[in-house]
Amino acid sequence: MKRRTRRILGLFGLVTLLLVWGFFAVGAGYFFLGSDSWGVRMAYYAIAGAGWLPFALPIVTFMAKPD
């Protein structure tokens, strides 16, 4: 597979990952986070916002493979 093809597939994979991750992170924060404290919510969304990075690493590695 050529690098250009891998990059476009990886782009769609990353966009899909971010949309799905964001949907579930916001949904979980809205429904299951019982605290009304803005500090607790800020900490949750900071951790949830960085939580997609380990899942994106294999996609980026796939995209960066040489031909």
Explain what the structure shows:
With 67 residues, this protein is mainly α. It has one domain. The chain is built from 3 helices and no strands. It has helices at 3-32, 38-50, 53-64. The N and C termini lie close together (7 Å).
Q: Residue share in helices?
A: over 70%
Q: Could you give a short account of the major beta sheet?
A: none
Please report the number of helical segments. Answer: 3
Distance between the termini: 7 Å
Q: Write down the domain tally.
A: 1
Strand content: under 5%
Rg from C-alpha positions?
16 Å
Ranges where pLDDT stays below 50 over 5 or more residues in a row are none
Overall average pLDDT: 93
Total beta-strand segments: 0
Q: Any idea what the shape is? A: elongated
Tell me the structural class: mainly alpha
